Amino acid sequence: MTAVIDDRDIERALVVMAHPDDVDFGAAGTIAGWTDRGIRVTYLMVTDGDAGGFDDGITRERMAELRREEQRAAAGAVGVTDVRFLGYPDGRVEATLELRRDIARVIRQVRPDRVLMPSPERNYERIHPSHPDHRAVGSAALDAVYPDARNPYAFPELREEGLDAWTVREVWLTGGPANNHYVDVTEAFPRKVAALRAHASQVAHMDDLEGMLRGWLVFNARAAGLSEGRLAEGFQVVATA
Question: Where do the TM regions start and end (predicted)?
Fold first, then answer.
């Protein structure tokens, strides 16, 4: 386990994810706990998820609109009201300077103590979290935290917009191969399920969504050494201050 800043010392958190639903699969239970403790959480989705879904009868433009609606509803299930989208093309995200700047801009706007993002590392034990978009967003977001957002001379156009440099104190990575911190989300599990069910275009075909989620979270709880029957989400926490 690593040293983690106590939630009581966190005022604001920013969640940077590649697609609508990423945060809900990986961290919705944890986010529910943060908002319950009074932490102001902002979601930043790099894409609108226009390449998702299973219905050829829905245009990609309509799918993007639908997934934005679903993510806002899912956010509401865990107490988040500030949801933002960058509009990058789903399935084609790269860790470019442009993406780093766009994430750094939001970091300077929100001024979070903690940023949650996908791991930039490939997880060979569970391939699904290692979608190329996830890894690209994780890489760009980590670079936006350090050095971009804190360096007043990086992206001078951000200073021209009136956005002063900001140092994020802590990063949480989800979906990677090296978890070093677990959050007990047993009581928040119904809210996590509700958040994921809001993504109907992505999960309506799953016969046992709740059972699948419970299996993942039981595995994490055992890795964390929690008692039988508990559920947990896992992260790699990195000190960045």
Answer: none
* Mean of pLDDT over the chain: 95
Domains of the chain: 9-239 (3.40.50.10320)
Specify the pLDDT at position 1: 55
> What string of H, E and C letters represents the secondary structure of the chain?
CCCCCCHHHCCEEEEEECCCCHHHHHHHHHHHHHHHCCCEEEEEEEECCCCCCCCCCCCHHHHHHHHHHHHHHHHHHCCCCEEEEEEECCCCCCCCHHHHHHHHHHHHHHCCCEEEEECCCCCCCCCHHHCHHHHHHHHHHHHHHHHHHCCCCCCHHHHHCCCCCCCCCEEEEECCCCCCEEEECCCCHHHHHHHHHCCHHHHCCCCCHHHHHHHHHHHHHHHHCCCCCCCEEEEEEEECC
pLDDT at 74 exceeding the cut of 80: yes
29 has pLDDT over 90: yes
- Is residue 204 within 8 A of residue 241, CB to CB? The reply is no
